[in-house]
Amino acid sequence: MKVRFGLLVFLFATGLLIGLVPSVAAGSPQGTEAPAMEPDEIDADEVRMDIALEDDGSAEWTIEFWVQLDDDDSTDAFESLERDIEEDPDEYTQEFADRIDGTVATASDATNREMTADSFSVSTERQSFGREYGVVRYSFQWHGFASSEGGELQAGDAIEGIYIDDGTRLLISWPEEYDLTSVTPDSDDQRDRAVIWHGGETDFVSGEPRIVVSTTGTGLSWPLIAGSVGAIGVITGLAVWWFRTRTGDADDGLAGSDPQPVAEPEAPEPEESLLSNEEQVMQLVEENGDRMKQKRVVEELGWTDAKTSKVVSKLREEGELESFRIGRENVLRIPEEEAEKASHHE
């Protein structure tokens, strides 16, 4: 599995947000033609997003792109990037830092919590685990990322509904003196003082992810945050956007934004061509008794996970769809009032 420095859609539960981030490209993403490999392009085998919570609610963000150096092209491309970053790291962080400052300010307004960002850096290194990897690492400090009160840290509202694609890992860790009180949804993996979610295994919905850690072990459940976080920028996306402008890798367009092949419904083909993406999803859910697993929507319409999540997020925001979780499955449901309206129009 390769993760190209391309485009990935990050969806927030209360709004739709598109960020520049790595998208899955096993050859090429579904519905998106991947460019031919050039010497100055890099394909990452894994993207790691690590968020280390601190006592005062700050968090150290680290975003790593792991590239397997298994041929001359990937090795030469990484070495070229490595030299460029070493010679002028500020060129890779200045505009990124400016954009992050704006993103954090928006998050601060949405959560009613004071936030700032600083200590931006970018670096590279080699790692060897039987195979050799090149690692590109962005890091910065996000002050106020979590709320801190009475020996308890509550985190997750600033990235509510974040979309992590296959090949991407999200890890949140906490200080040694804290114990995990609650985590939503259940993590895919857990370490000592850290929880991990893997893209492709977990789909965050409204109110997720949430993590509460406490020095007493009796932390309160996470309160619902009023207002929208949909305007928050995507941190990882900004890092990759800036990275890609420096490696010369041309974008092919937003993942999931290009027209995608769709499964033909029972309706005649001319009618199908007149339906918007949102109408196609609503029609499919209605045909399945007003309730349907999101995974099945992906399969029936032949869309990418990113595109489906993007459309579903918009429908949730407009109140036309609701979503809830059964185990690890995200289930879509048409609200009763919407279903009644539809029946009256029939």
UniProtKB/TrEMBL annotation:
UniProt xrefs under InterPro entries: DUF7343, DUF7345, WH_DNA-bd_sf
Region (Disordered): 251-275
Superkingdom, taxonomy of origin: Archaea
Transmembrane segments: 220-243
Keyword Transmembrane: yes
Protein name, UniProt field: HTH iclR-type domain-containing protein
DUF7345 domain ranges (all copies): 51-178
One Pfam family it belongs to: DUF7345
Domain DUF7343: start-end pairs: 274-335
Keyword tags: Membrane, Transmembrane, Transmembrane helix
